[in-house]
Design goal:
Length: 186
């Protein structure tokens, strides 16, 4: 199973101005650095929480059709864009929507409702393309925006790599802010 970003977000959920206000930075000398730590913080929050904060498209590639319910690895999911199997000529063949049930939103999943066509390649023969992320920056929950700001501030203040005397750890406040948005599966 692999996950590939097809279309990255066009913007970040926190603006440079908002982050600079959070950092109490009034000059523009470090705007490039602050933008970099902002992007790094957003990607870290997304990766740690299995989240997509802004609209983006992804492809989940599987070796075979799911036999049971398959939970998509990111949330929230707003659309299932395409479900396909690869045929003998290497072309994607759409799986009819009647052959699966899909649930979108915070706990996105897809469950087969009938037998899917068999993919010809033994590896990577099933593709599930989906759109994930909140509709826009205004729709991103404030707790997640605050998690991004706190993590970006930690990155900004601690620019050195971890070493003998310094160990990097994810701020507990960020984990606490993200907790309600994480999917717990038993």
């Amino acid at each position: 199973m692999s996950l590939t970003l097809l279309s990255p977000p066009a913007a970040e959920p926190v603006t440079l101005a908002d982050l600079k206000a959070h950092l109490r930075v009034t000059h523009s000398d470090e705007d490039a650095l602050i933008t970099g730590v902002l992007v790094a913080a957003v990607r870290a929050v997304e990766a740690r929480g299995g989240l997509a904060l802004m609209p983006q498209q992804w492809r989940l590639t599987l070796d075979a059709a799911p036999e049971e319910t398959l939970f998509l690895p990111l949330s929230p999911v707003s659309a299932l864009d395409a479900v396909a199997v690869i045929d003998g000529e290497g072309a994607p063949q759409t799986v009819a929507a009647s052959l699966y049930d899909a649930v979108l939103g915070k706990t996105p999943r897809i469950r087969p409702a009938g037998p899917w066509p068999l993919p010809v390649p033994a590896v990577g023969g099933v593709r599930i393309d989906f759109s994930a992320g909140y509709a826009n920056a205004d729709a991103v929950p404030e707790q997640l925006k605050l998690a991004v700001k706190i993590l970006a501030a930690a990155f900004y203040e601690n620019r050195e790599a971890a070493g003998e005397r310094r160990v990097y750890s994810f701020p507990q406040t960020v984990d606490a802010l993200m907790a309600p948005f994480r999917e717990v599966r038993l």
